[in-house]
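Progress report, Aim 2. The chain analyzed during this reporting quarter is listed below.
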Amino acid sequence: MRRTIILLALITSHIGVAQGLKTIYTNEHQVVSLFFPNAIRQAVVGSKNFVFSYNREIPQNYGLLQGTSGTESNLLVITQNGGVYSYLLAHEGILDTLSYFVRPKDRIYNIATKTTAMIQGPIIKPGDTPTEKTAKTLAIDNQVKYYRNFSSYQLKSNRNSLKRKRKKGLALHLKDLVYNRSEVYAIIDIKNRSKIDLEVDYVKIFKVNGNLRKKASYQKLPLTVLYRHNFPKVVKSRENTSLILAVPKFTLGDSEKLWIELKEKNGGRTMGLGYK
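Predicted structure tokens for the chain:
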């Protein structure tokens, strides 16, 4: 947070208060995507009723935006090459645009090399001591370490229970959804009470909008998994295991729910669990 404040102060001192910024409209029912010329390094949203999700583990050039009705806000995005982009955010019930393709000339500022070094930390070149890893690799390592430590703590200490589903000797249990920083940690328990070992093909998380019986209005949107903790290859007969999937922070609209799907590898067993 301190680095963000320093950066904002530096930008403001050079360009003043930005005027005529573009407004991006979003809501809780649809996902608005923003594609930038370079991978995203950092993003800050001013109000809690707006969420901008992007991959912190592997830098990518796009992010997903959602928001609920309330106070209008703003979005500040910094790309890996130092480009600074700023937008106003507002809630709108019906959206005309769902994808924005940002051009390099849309940036409001370009961070100088000195400023970039201050924010990222020193860049370690091959041959430097004590390590040859680049600053980018170190940042990814630190993020993964944070995911791992936080997930490990939740598995040991979290005793909540949200929803449970049983089918053909299997039990899928959503224990909790823990919001932390810009991620949501889904704590999931799989119990195998059947006589056959369960070889896990995948466990996925979706946002579901509408009714499956009315296929024209039904949408099933996968959430990007940023990190998997304690993910099992096999859940043996009469055993159970707990795992965590970390996904970008999200919001659920009135007609939306969360859907967790489990599929067996080399077998026909599948099951899903819906939570609102």
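Residues 37 and 103 are 6 Å apart (CA to CA). Helices lie at 2-15, 113-120, 135-157. These observations will guide the mutagenesis work planned for the next reporting period.
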